[in-house]
Design brief:
The protein has 656 residues and is α+β, with helices and mostly antiparallel strands. The strands form 5 sheets. Strands 12, 13, 14, 15, 16, 17 and 18 form a 7-stranded antiparallel β-sheet that branches.
């Protein structure tokens, strides 16, 4: 008995920690499968012992909301739904009743209030009793009507969600790999609860109505199905739904299940609600669940396989994440052979060892996870050296979670930004090497320094087998790398990522040193400081960089990888010498504003970002624009010229 009570207390603590991470901190410390398994174990112990702790997740709906957004109490508490994975239980729930079946979307539940046909208020679910007011953010949801035909007071509930396509696009635009969102729900939660709704507007949040709470003066023939149809006529996008009976519910579940692979919106199951409103309301509710609704969670397809290895995957923060590699199995229509284990604590909970027989599944039919370890041989061989750099590792305990870190500050995985700069457009301009792809190459040992990027053909077969790659994309990458070999000395210098050395400074220094790279190794701070536009700070960082033996060695090897055309060295200044330009707006003749800037600098001019009294010309194809830069130029008497005017200026200056 004592052991069971202690286990119950431990389960309450574990589950509450997992819920806090998921609901408040927008990250997950265990899989849905593991959470549901522990939750069911806790529920069984509570029923067996006849005891329920006050803090148990079986009686508490949610956590107190923690943010700077205003709080508001819901007029009607928002309860969780009782759930099952058995269609037979849905049939039992239905009995002789009809019900509405719909997607259980995995986003953020929102309560909307309309008055006089206008959106008055939007509040998040929060802890079920108190939510956060996010009205300004709701106003920029992609598909939410701000005005509706109905003029009475309307209260409805729905789910704010972000689709997988938008999720992948937004994540790809976040340069910091470790700052990327783990799943669409976390991204949606962060987007909906922004203090600045401009960010929300950029995230393509959509709202799907799923329940009409009240609409004064409307009857709906006592039908939930009719309510949803009425909401559609008001302009709301309503969650996909159908009317079912005990005889048809199994077929409808199958129909929904077949759509999962093509569904753009995250869903973790289905919801069944009695169509008869009065009947459903007459049943009341428990302390946690309404009795008129039931949630159906997909019965996960579980396959048994053998764990082949634990791959340790470093990131730019130094965190080294364990990934389980197992014998391939077919799950939910695709072949999978790897699953993230997240951290050492989860490995220890599973007692995970190479050679173990494990059960794997796809969370929400999408994300591969380990469900159970059948043989539990135990965790061993946690690496003492980083798999990327060979540096010493350490085990750290943060938020009650054991994680593995690389202690080497020079680890290539931590230098991801340097490699990203090297391949960027203004540097070596290698297309197909996003930060995410670079991280994969670094982790696999394909890239240890800059020169390795020019020899990725060594790992051709492995790259072609990587997710997101194939023969065509691999060939495109190699072609881009070959094209990058033709570059300029200033671009090569800029690509090194030397502190304070931008492309413009690199051009000035290279020109002053006669485009002779051998001079970089022995030039002095005093010599560089004499160059116009190069001060002591820039001179110091440049000489410090090339005084490092490792940097000199890599730069020398880089020179052997690239072809740099001979630059014409003129004793005279360029035709735009002593002229200052500002460029704004779109361009037509050149590919982008950076190309215009390069032309100006090549001809001796300078480009700044702000119009001042020292500016000679503002280049803007929209000469009559009301932009702040045009206004400032007009105030200061700075001529505003078009791109065509600039081209004529170049011709005229050259002719002179």
């Amino acid at each position: 008995m004592a052991d069971k009570k202690k286990r119950m207390q431990n389960l309450v603590e574990i589950l509450n920690r997992a819920r806090r991470a998921y609901e408040q901190e927008d990250h997950e410390i265990m899989s849905n499968f593991e959470y549901d398994k522990l939750y069911d174990e806790l529920l069984g112990l509570e029923q067996e012992l006849g005891t329920t702790l006050a803090s148990s997740p079986t009686v508490n709906v949610g956590y107190e909301v923690l943010s700077e957004l205003p709080k508001e109490r819901h007029e009607r508490p928002m309860l969780s739904l009782d759930k099952t994975k058995e269609v037979s239980q849905l049939k039992e729930f239905l009995g002789a009743q009809k019900a509405v079946i719909s997607w259980k979307l995995d986003g953020l539940t929102i309560v909307l209030t309309y008055q006089g046909g206008q959106l008055e208020k939007a509040v998040t679910r929060g802890n079920g009793e108190i939510g956060e007011v996010i009205t300004n953010n709701a106003k920029v949801f992609k598909n939410l009507p701000l005005h509706i035909p109905y003029r009475g007071e309307l209260v409805l509930r729905g789910e704010a969600v972000i689709g997988y396509k938008d999720f992948e696009k937004i994540n790809a635009e976040i340069e910091d790999v470790d700052a990327r969102y783990k799943n669409p729900r976390n991204l949606c939660s962060g987007s909906v609860r922004q203090l600045n709704n401009e960010i929300t507007a950029q995230r393509n949040v959509r709202f799907f109505a799923f329940t009409l709470v009240s609409a004064e003066g409307e009857g709906f023939s006592n039908s939930r199905y009719e309510q949803l149809g009425w909401l559609e006529r008001q302009g709301f996008e309503v969650v996909e739904h159908r009317l079912v009976t005990a005889e048809t519910v199994e077929d409808e579940v199958i129909q929904f299940e077949q759509k999962i692979a093509d569904n753009d919106f995250p869903s973790d199951g289905l919801v069944l609600t009695y169509d008869d409103i009065a009947y459903g309301q007459s049943l009341g509710a428990t302390s946690k669940f309404p009795r008129d609704s039931f949630a159906f969670k997909w019965a996960d397809e579980i396959k048994e396989t053998r764990l082949l290895e634990i791959e340790w995957s470093p990131s730019r923060t130094g965190l080294i994440n364990p990934v389980a590699i197992f014998e391939p199995v077919d799950l939910e229509g695709t072949t999978v052979s790897r699953a993230s284990v997240h951290n050492i604590s989860i490995m220890e909970d599973l007692e995970l060892g190479v050679g173990d027989q494990i059960q794997v599944y796809k969370a929400n039919m999408i994300i591969p996870q380990i469900a159970e370890n059948l043989t539990r041989s135990g965790v061993k061989d946690i690496p003492t050296e980083c798999p990327v750099c060979g540096g010493r590792t350490k085990i750290s305990m943060e938020n009650d979670t054991k994680t593995l870190y690389c202690t080497n500050p020079q680890c290539q995985a931590k230098q991801l930004k340097s490699f990203a700069l090297f391949v960027s457009r203004d540097a070596m301009n290698i297309e197909g090497l996003s930060e995410a792809t670079l991280e994969k190459f670094i982790v696999r040992g394909f890239v240890k320094d800059f020169t390795d990027i020019f020899h990725l053909e060594r790992y051709g077969e492995e790259i072609k087998d990587m997710e997101g790659f194939g023969e065509k994309s691999y060939e495109n990458l190699l072609n881009s790398i070959e094209n990058a070999r033709n570059t300029t000395l200033p671009k090569l210098v800029y690509s090194l990522g030397i502190a304070n050395i931008g492309l413009a400074n690199a051009k000035v220094i290279c020109k002053a040193l006669d485009y002779a790279p051998e001079r970089f190794f022995d030039v002095t701070v005093e010599e560089l400081s004499e160059i116009s536009g190069v001060g002591g700070v820039i001179a110091g960082t440049f000489t410090d960089y090339f005084s490092d033996e490792n940097h000199r060695e890599i730069f020398t090897r880089l020179l052997q990888e690239v072809h740099i055309p001979k630059e014409e060295i003129s004793g005279e200044g360029g035709i735009l010498e002593n002229m200052n330009f500002v460029i704004t707006g779109s361009v037509e003749h050149y590919a982008n504003r950076n190309e215009v800037k390069a032309v100006i600098e090549e001809n001796g001019g300078k480009v700044t970002g702000t119009v001042t009294s020292k500016t000679n010309y503002l280049i803007n194809n929209d000469i009559h624009s009301k932009s702040s830069k045009n206004k400032k130029a007009a105030e200061l008497g700075v001529p505003i010229i078009s791109e065509q005017d600039f081209l004529e200026m170049l011709k005229g200056k050259a002719a002179d």
